[in-house]
Amino acid sequence: MRRVLGLLALAALPVAVLAVFFVLPVSGMVGRGLWGDGGFAPGQVLEVLGRPRVHRVVWFTVWTSSVATAAAVALGLPAAYALHRLALPARRLVRAALMVPFVLPTVVVGVAFRELLGESGPLAGLGLDGTPWAILAGLLFFNVAVVIRTVGAAWEALDPRPAEAAAALGAGPWRVLATVTLPALRPAVVSSASVVFLFCATAFGVVLTLGGVRYASVETEIYLLTTTLYDLPAAAALSLLQLLVVTALLAVSARLRATPDATVARSVPRPTRVGARDLPAVGVTLLLLAYVAAPILTLVLGSLQTPDGWGLGNYRALGSTGEGSALLVPASTALVTSLRTAVDATWMALLLGVLVSVIVTRRSHGRAERRLRALLDGFFMLPLGVSAVTLGFGFLLTLGHLRSSPVLVPIAQALVALPLVVRTLTPVLGGIDDRQRQAAGSLGAGPLRTLLVVDLPVVWKPLLAAAGLCFAVSLGEFGATSFLARSDAPTLPVVIFRLLGEPGALNYGMALAASVVLAAATTVVMLLVERLRVPSTGAF
Amino acid sequence: MLSLSHVHVDYDGAPAVVDVSLDLPDGSVLAVLGPSGSGKSTLLRAIAGLEPARGTISWDGRSLAGVPTHKRGFALMFQDGQLFAHLTVARNVAYPLRLRHIGRTTRAARVEELLALVGLEGYADRLPATLSGGERQRVALARALAVEPRLLLLDEPLSALDAGLRERLAGDLAAILRASGTTALMVTHDQEEAFAVADRLAVMRAGRLVQEGATAEVWGAPADPATALFLGYARVLSGDPGRLVLGTERPYALRRSALVADVDGPLRGRVVSARATPDVVRLVVDLEGVGEVDAVAGPSGAYPGPGEQVRLRVDRGRVAPVGGS
């Protein structure tokens, strides 16, 4: 009983924060769908879901997400092998480079792909601009890193001996892969695939910038219904649908995220030399590298083009409010706002994330406690899947009176980043043998001292990595921020989106330049994070 | 026949196996014995084709260089079995049979036969996670034998088990290997395991092969003092102490029971410590002109306590010449 009370005390802060800033807004949003003007009216949800346009939107979301997920897995697996099992030169750098898209602001990616595929872009000949393929390319660009990270971390820690045993029993390399390695990796593959599907299905910035009004996913449709058509019940109905699907998917992925078998002694394999049969995997990795580099390069080149030739004019213009005063504040001020917000969001997410991680990884005594922990674990994962737009919109509905408060944006961003922190920390904390803590305790160390002696030495690096990840994610967060940022204090992604919507070559150039600045900032942060060599960073 | 000729293996840039040459006749069981870090496991992995090696590893005169692991026809059994956790016992054992496209009925019969051979009838549908350590090793053995390997490679097959089980399984392993006529190479750091299972011994130290031969030969004449001590001899005497105790200056290795307390014994000493075991009383005696040596006293009756004088005689059957002397 005392243990359960202790658990609840520890959980109080994260639960309270999540309740006020997550459950309340989301349920406010859902309530909007279920309660009409005249009371409880679930019928209007069904009416909305019966609309042909909604059918189209849902179908579009499902098929693009499925195809993008399949492609991410198909390309991510060989790359995970090449980057985590082979002794490739500069593989850490390549890993970091492939991780950059994941934290790149969605708006930036949208802009980059438009530059690449658009009328004057180098790949204009493919005629992909404005087609669903452009959206698919954007989704894949973002999410292949998730597969590489998750499967790669599992593959790296995979005991090589079962595979060796199979080889010694006469199984050829492909046979070993199919009968031993892939079954062992299945939890990681399925878990990353379900998370990628989730990310694709709730993608916002990419679909909005690349799809326009012609192609809408559930997420952008919610945005459109809210901000342009003011059809709040319909938006709420879609949010509700999304919430249900996402929760179901999260439950499935949590089930599949099987805990690794800690009972057997593992030997960590050395990376092997690259052999002839590894060439396809290396080829796929290089292809992905090119795929990631191409839009970014086009973006950089585009940002250096001014009406009067090559130059830094677009960057200099970031100190202004744009052509025809498109902005209320200069872009440079928005950058400062972004950085300041990211710092706030980072410490908030870390504070909550550490508490949550400690709560869910401590060993349970008894069934009630175990159930409670599992429940809390699932609860804290919810922000992972609930669309940022739903969250942002819910904030507006329920916490509207707080709207002028500057804390709203960092809190929303912290909630978006919270699952990433938890997913980075829990494998590490869970990997600490509880007997170490017991040993420290038996030697006379109090709980705090145990934390310092046993947990901290193992956790400080993942903690730093999580902080970096949070910072990068917060810098690029667009979905929730676009709802919440005050017009006189926008963040850089909001400014970029605004500039894109304004006429004028300078405004477009400024959007490109601001995107490069944002991308550079997140890239630097990710390179630093990669230096910490925490395998669980960005893995699910 | 397996032949190694001047085999070198580097592990992470450091030499792990240095210039090893040996032959293993068909049907024999060789134990490669060495302390941890002696390079014995690396040698085994090189034979299996899991580590790149220099020199020649050949089978029946044909070099295995360039032949990948799965085409060598050797089976490898790991310290902890390495069963495939997602397959049942029967499917684990059937795994190599499936690879060889053996029909369902033959396969089922063969699996049953193999499980009977290792004493695990009725375990077919269990998952590895539900088995004890000893059962897992038996399944691993059955799986390895299913290949009908030209050579069975065993990497510390019994080390992960507790003492009683290890002894029993060592006997079973020896019997199963002989019954199936399997040529085997076992790596171990435990000399008792080696004696129980193998009929040939190879001793490795610091990457080099120190001695190789029939078990009794190696045991009867260790190549050098360090080998003698590793094989379980208590002390090696040579020079003056050797002359005093054994009447020769050439080095001899003494087992712990080579000196026996005997009132008529020719050697005199003072007991430093005495420790009773179920069979005998083990003494440490300070022998004049020699220093401390191990000795035993009969199990029954009074035995000398620390500080007392004692007389000892040499049991000639429990000493062995060292270095081919």
Which helices and strands appear, and what pairs or packs with what?
The complex is a heterodimer of chains A (540) and B (325).
Chain A lengths: L1 H33 E2 L2 E2 L2 H7 L2 H34 L5 H13 L2 H12 L14 H25 L4 H8 L4 H29 L3 H7 L6 H10 L4 H25 L22 H25 L1 E2 L2 E2 L2 H4 L14 H31 L5 H19 L2 H11 L9 H24 L2 H9 L4 H30 L2 H6 L7 H10 L3 H27 L9
Helix pairs in contact in A: 1-11, 1-14, 1-15, 1-16, 2-11, 3-6, 3-8, 3-12, 4-6, 4-12, 4-22, 5-6, 5-9, 5-12, 5-21, 5-22, 6-8, 6-9, 7-8, 8-11, 10-11, 11-15, 12-22, 14-15, 14-17, 14-19, 15-17, 17-19, 18-19, 19-22, 21-22
Chain B lengths: L1 E10 L2 E11 L4 E5 L6 H9 L5 E6 L2 E2 L10 E4 L11 H11 L4 H14 L15 H14 L4 E5 L7 H18 L3 E5 L2 H7 L2 E6 L2 E7 H6 L4 H6 L4 E3 L1 H8 L5 E3 L4 E3 L5 E10 L4 E7 L3 E7 L11 E6 L4 E3 L4
Parallel strand pairs in B: 3-8, 3-9, 6-7, 7-8
Antiparallel strand pairs in B: 1-2, 1-4, 4-5, 9-10, 11-12, 12-18, 13-17, 14-15, 14-17, 15-16
Protein architecture, described:
The complex is a heterodimer of chains A (540) and B (325). Chain A is mainly α and 540 residues long. Chain A has a domain at 42-153 and 193-258 and 277-301: Orthogonal Bundle (MetI-like fold), CATH 1.10.3720. Helices cover 74% and strands 1% of the residues of chain A. Chain A contains 22 helices and four strands. Chain A has helices at residues 2-34, 43-49, 52-85, 91-103, 106-117, 132-156, 161-168, 173-201, 205-211, 218-227, 232-256, 279-303, 313-316, 331-361, 367-385, 388-398, 408-431, 434-442, 447-476, 479-484, 492-501, 505-531, and strands at 35-36, 39-40, 305-306, 309-310. In chain A, the strands form two sheets. Chain A has a two-stranded antiparallel ribbon with strand order 1-2. In chain A, strands 3-4 form a two-stranded antiparallel sheet. In chain A, a hairpin with a 2-residue loop joins strand 1 (35-36) and strand 2. In chain A, helix 2 (43-49) packs across helix 11, helix 14 packs parallel to helix 17 and helix 14 runs antiparallel to helix 19 (447-476). Residues 259-266 of chain A have low confidence and may be disordered. Chain B has two domains: 2-229, 3-Layer(aba) Sandwich (Rossmann fold), CATH 3.40.50; 237-321, Nucleic acid-binding proteins (OB fold (Dihydrolipoamide Acetyltransferase, E2P)). Chain B contains nine helices and 18 strands. A six-stranded mixed sheet of chain B has the order 6-7-8-3-9-10, with helices on both faces. Chain B has a five-stranded antiparallel sheet with strand order 13-17-14-15-16, covered by helices on one side. In chain B, strands 2-1-4-5 form a four-stranded antiparallel sheet, with helices on one face. In chain B, strand 1 and strand 2 (14-24) form a beta hairpin. Chain B starts with a strand and ends with a strand. The model of chain B has no long low-confidence stretch (mean pLDDT 86). Chains A and B meet through helix 7 and helix 8 of A and strand 6, helix 2 and helix 4 of B.
